[in-house]
Every structure is written in structure tokens, then in C-alpha cells.
Amino acid sequence: SSGSARASTQYPMISRTRLVLVVFIALFLLTALLLTTLLAFMMTSSDLVDESTDSPIPMGAVVHDKRFDHVVDVFRANLNAGMERAGAAFAVYYKGNPAVHVWGGWKEIMEERLPEKEEDSIKVLSGTPWDQHTMTVMFSTTKCLSALVLAHVLQSSPSITYSSLVVDVWPEYGRHGKEHTTIGDVVLHRAGLPYGNRSLSLEDVQDPELMSKYFEDSTPVWEPGSVSGYHALTIGLLIDQIVRRIDEKQRGVWKILDEDMLQPHRIVDLSMGLRRAEDNARVATLSGPDEIDNKREERRDPESLRLYNLGNNSYNERLNEVFSWITPTSEDYNKLSNRLLSMPSNLGIGSAEAVAHTLSIVASGHFLNDKTLSLISKPVLEDQMDIINGYAESKGYGLQYTKSPKGSWIFGHSGLGGQNVRMDVEEGLAIAYLCNGMKIADADMVEPWKKLLEAVYSVLP
Questions:
Q1: CB 142 within 8 A of CB 342
Q2: Computed over its alpha carbons, how large is the radius of gyration of the chain?
Q3: C-alpha to C-alpha distance for 219 and 208, rounded to whole angstroms
Q4: Any idea what the Cα angle at residue 289 is, between residues 283 and 290, rounded to 5°?
Q5: How high is the pLDDT of residue 38?
Q6: Cα distance between residue 125 and residue 284, in whole Å
Q7: Degrees to nearest 5, angle at CA 343 with 337 and 349
Q8: Using CA atoms, how far apart are residues 297 and 315, in angstroms rounded to an integer?
Q9: Distance between CA atoms of 7 and 252, rounded to whole angstroms?
Q10: 303 vs 377, more confident
Q11: What is the pTM of this model?
Q12: How far, rounded to the nearest angstrom, does the alpha carbon of residue 382 sit from its chain's CA centroid?
């Protein structure tokens, strides 16, 4: 009996020991599982690189495709060479997949020191770093999105093409000598309406019915179809009026882009005008350009500065009178009231990653069918004079065209201050460069953009 008593007193002890052992093994296995998962995550093709501690200029990158490491190196070199007076981001999608997203510099500059010598860069003493989710004003790269929306709407309406007269869908437009204007004329900047007969307020531009009457009552500045002259602010507004008359739901450009492209693909860091006022906290503050930038650009590339200054002409003087509340200055584009406006020529707001993602979807054969994509992949006008910009350009379908480092046509649009977005359908590339430190140089003559574009093509097979 004493033996059975001993045994009975030991059973609880054995049970507790087993319990502790089971718990220990379970914790060990759980820890091993977590470590394995973490290791697997770290070994995926996407590497987050945060270099903000290694340099006085904050910088980070996500590299999905190791071949594009060189792009990060070039972006870093641009930053260190003082090419970005504030901040910038660059993103590439390759064959439908994200390749690289790199960002750096300052979303907002609090304090800066001007250079003692002209050749030196502005030194930022304090500021808010540009991060992975920073958005910025896209300026005229917005036109690329509007052009793609028009192409998307036209392919759903086979009876209406770029050759169709505007009056076929908008009869009232034909007043004052505009009856022979085609949709193609509008997107080739040949409509003769870089501005209308009277000045516009912000409230006017928010009212589609008022804008419809504004264009109907306006007299062309030149005979429609005769010459091409950059419609900096009106081309998007005209496209908006046209698509409202073709789309079966009478939606405008921004609503079509959001409902047919952005929402289905869960792209949230892109909009025309801010979705909400509170989103402005994530949007970079624009700065410059100023006299220091002017002198630096004159030394770097006098021809680039000359072309940029051709925009100082009577057409643009009148444009700035008509749209006096949104002139091409950082001050006007920093205003929240302007940033809330869904203006389809110039007020896209987004991250480089979101823009590149959007263009990649198009380049991959979604949103536009193969026939439409093939049509818009080559320019209508090649190296033809733009009477407002003052130099020759290749353009078509609301887009700008340039040759890639490989010699093929790439298309998209540039924007004030150095912004640039491009697609190369042959190579399966979608590229976006956005910055808040506004450059003097125009379009493809912007130095950091040129270097980054060359870097992308240098790693392709």
C-alpha cells in the first residue's frame, strides 16, 4: 500500500513535467516557424534599402529585380551631385512587374543654406525626408493619363475615332469657326484654343456645364488644324468635355480613370486633384526654380535654358491672365485650393510607383486593346514646330514621343519642373520620374531624368 501511495504522489509531478516539455517544444517549433518565414521573406526578390543613416541626404529603395540595382546607384549619384534641389522618386515596371522604386531628398525643406559659390549646391539643413509613400504634383504628365482615358473611351465606341469631327459628339462646339475641328486636332494641340475669350476662375473650372459653354463661345486663336501650339491647361478640359459625350455613363476623365483603372487594380496613390484635403499631408511641397538654378542651368546646358525660355511669349502671357490663379509657379501649385481641383491637364497628384504601375497596366495590354495600343505607340506629327513652345516636337493622341536610348519610340508626357512619364511597349517598360525641386530644363533635357533613363536601358538584355 505504501508503494501505491508513492506512485500516486508522483503522478502529478510527471504530468507537470510533461506539460512543461510540451509547451517548450511548441514554443520552439513556433519560433522556428517564425524564423523560417522571416528568412523566406528576406530572401524574396524585393529588398528594401534604407540609406538615410549613411548619408546627409535621405534615400531609400525597393529593388524587385536585381538587374535594376544600377538604377539605384545612378539615383544616389544624382542626389550626391546636387541635381535635386529638394526631393524626387523614380519607378520602373518591366514586363508587367515592379522592377525598382527609389526615392530620396526632401519632401519639404524647413531650412536651407544658399551656396557661397555659384557652382555649389543648395545645402538643406533641415527638412522632412521624402519617403516611400510621398506623392507630388505631376503637372503636365497628367496629360498622359487623360490621353489614355480618351483612347479607352474611343475603343468602346467604334463609330467615333480621332478622325471624327468634334461636332459629331458635341454639336454646339462648332460655333465661331470650329465646325471642322476633329478630335485628332484637339489632341494634337491644333484646336486653336490654348485659352478662351475670357478669364476663368477656379469655380468655373469645377463646373463642367459652364466649361462646355466657355469652349462653345470661344473663338480660336488660329484656324483649327493649321498649326500645333501647346494647349497647356485646356487640352485636358477639352478631352473631359469630349469623353463626357461619348462615355455611356457621361463620366469625366477623372471618374473614368478612377473607376476603370485605379480601383480595379487597387492603385491608391494616384488621383486628379486630391481625393481628400487630409491627403495633402503626404504631398511634397514644391520649391524653385530660382536665379541660382537659372545660372547653374546656363553653365550646364545653355541650349536647354534657351529652349526653356522660349516659353516666355505672348501666348503664355495671355494664358496666365486667363488662368491667373494657377500660373506655372510653385506657389500656386502648393495651394490646397488648387490641389483639390480635378484638372485633367496639370493636376494629377501621385507617387512615381503608382504612376509607373498604372502605365505598366496599359503597356501590358490592359485598359487599351492591342489595336489601340499599337495605334498610339507611334506619333502623328514627327519633329514639327510647336508655335507656343517654340521648338519642334513629336506628338499624337494627346501624348509626346521621343526616342529611347535603343532608338525605338517611347511615349508619355513630360511636366513642368522636370517630371516625366514614359512607356516603351516593345520593351515592356513603364517609367515615372517625379520631383518637387523644380528644374529649369525642359522635358527630356532634365539631367537626372536623362541619366536615369540611360541607366534603365543599360540593364536590359
A1: no
A2: 27
A3: 19
A4: 135
A5: 44
A6: 17
A7: 75
A8: 24
A9: 84
A10: 377
A11: 0.88
A12: 24
Mean pLDDT of 304-331: 92
Which amino acid is present at 405?
Answer: P
- Residue 5 predicted with pLDDT over 80: no
Taking the domains of the chain in order of start, what are their residue ranges? Answer: 1-44, 106-111+133-144+264-458
Contact between 164 and 182 under an 8 Å Cβ cutoff? The reply is yes
Which of 96-108 are b and which e, b meaning 16 or more Cβ less than 10 Å from the residue's Cβ? eebbbbbbbbbbb
Mean of the per-residue pLDDT values for the chain?
A: 90
pLDDT at residue 109 greater than cutoff 80: yes
Q: Are 296 and 81 in contact (CB under 8 A)?
A: no
CA atoms of 208 and 244, how far apart (whole Å): 9
* Cell (9 digits) for 198: 475670357
Does residue 450 contact residue 405 with C-beta atoms inside 8 Å?
Answer: no
pLDDT of residue 295: 78
DSSP-assigned beta bridge partners for residue 126: 111
Is 84:289 a contact under the CB 8 Å cutoff? no
Instruction: Give the pLDDT band of residue 444 (cuts 50, 70, 90).
Output: confident
Asked if residue 239 has pLDDT above 50, the reply is yes
Alpha helices in 43-107 (DSSP H): 69-80
Question: Residue 402's Cα: distance from chain center in Å?
Answer: 17
pLDDT of residue 181: 99
Total count of residues recorded for the chain: 461
Residue 295 phi, psi dihedral angles, 5° rounding: -70, -40
One-letter amino acid for residue 40 of the chain: A
How far is residue 399's CA from residue 377's CA, in Å, rounded to a whole number?
Answer: 9
Backbone angles phi, psi at 458, to 5 degrees: -70, -20
* DSSP single-letter state for residue 125: E
Residue 264: is its pLDDT beyond 90?
A: yes
How many angstroms separate the CA atoms of 383 and 389, rounded? Answer: 13
Cell numbers representing residue 409 in the block: 519610340
CB-CB contact of 171 with 377 (8 Å): no
Domain 106-111+133-144+264-458 has CATH 3.40.710.10: yes
Residue 138 is placed in which grid cell? Answer: 505631376
Cell of 167: 461636332
Of 271, 260, 269, which Cα lies nearest the Cα of 366?
260
Whether omega before 405 lies within 30 degrees of 0, making that bond cis, reads no
Say what the alpha-carbon torsion angle 73, 69, 84, 52 is, to the nearest 10 degrees: -80
